[in-house]
């Protein structure tokens, strides 16, 4: 009987060899250890960043707020060291291929954070600015918060009650920055006073309505909750008390900014003016870019890209017999009323038509296994960037949203709309994050925390260069597909790209070469279509978030670089759809891992055997072999029993 069992096993082995399918060995303990560690790591990050946790749909910590204390920063470093030690004790070689990627990303996250500890006393202790903080918009405080039960309202009340304490903690950190001489330049906080006053105007003490963002959940939404009127009255009464406390603390914050912080802000615009400022900027660049590029290299790449793109623009200008400068050409276009929509609604419809009619029908030429999750276009409620994106749900019940700024339709030209739609919707952020939703990855990757920029580089990475680099790369795909229908739209596409190239020059100019704000303005206005006022606010952002503006173009350049390598090595075997999908399926990664992943994909393509028409896929073969193996094993058990 044993002889028969051996023979059956031999048949199975021979069959598997013929089928050409490989079985990967069991990775038991190492894989289990990594899974357990990554789960614990994710839980820790959600508990430390409860606001981010709520945003990611993880509601376990909805009743608390983040702590802003030096003790908390130090405790997080100790915790990160512990996780890193545990991770590096896991034998990476014993992991499956997918787990090796999870291992490498977790190692990168922990290493990035631990390396950033050296710079914890720089921007990190300036914990709000014109773009971040509770004064920025009360709606951010309530966004993605569930208000379905009385328990949800209890959680929200707990957060509101905690907010004044958190504001005091932020003020304490600011005072430490003043003491150490690492405060912002005043352009990073000069709008904070106006922001606070707007919140105060919307929330007059004890006289709250739906106009007050902090109190809005207690208005009509509470009436939909199944409970008694007495309970509703009690919840609203507690809401008034809590919001009163928040408003009083906002007044304290305003006085502090005016009387203590603003007089202590640094004089120079760039962080180069701080002690070890150039080294700090290098650390910020590495955090955003996930590559070892020096500020000099980034600056040079920017100059080269501006030269290349402006050359493409000048070709169009020559074609149209225009002999002026780039800025003068765009000024001419802006004087043409036909270049603009005459209403916000018409502009929204224009974006919808671009997405649904111009772009989406061509996506199948560039991607396999399209997720097909819905996207809608909605207007931004307040002025700000030209657009932004928020992700929907995995099952499609909540669509992704392209939030378009249509407040000033007479100022945003039609020729700039297609690259923006491709950046924020398809094949940009919406498609990118749709793949991410449907790809099975651990929570620490699929629900990655959103790091506020003031923390950089003492922060866990969110791989901005990959995410924004892809969206900028997506704009260029429209040119490959011939979607830009005329010279004006091509100029709009180049305008969007050169704007990101200028950022490389301007950001490094400010923070490494000690440019003034006027230096930065003069440079960027030479090549872009934006107004002086808009660019002035934009440069204030660069001053506040050193390195962030460089991530878009560097990410795009890296994606184009690895694509060129793949095209060269694969030749006729190169499939653009498979290439794009392989990048999307791996989710957000640091750029050095992107390069390695693409190289692995290239090797897979080179070794892949062509299949005859109608032959089963290796996946199908694997399933067949696995079923056969199971039947043989079950039979053998019966044989041995006999």
UniProtKB/TrEMBL annotation:
Keywords: Signal. The keyword Signal applies. It comes from the Eukaryota. It holds the Pfam family DUF885. InterPro entries: DUF885. Residues 1-28 form the signal peptide. PANTHER family: DUF885 DOMAIN-CONTAINING PROTEIN, GLR0591 PROTEIN. This is DUF885 domain-containing protein. It comes from Patella caerulea.
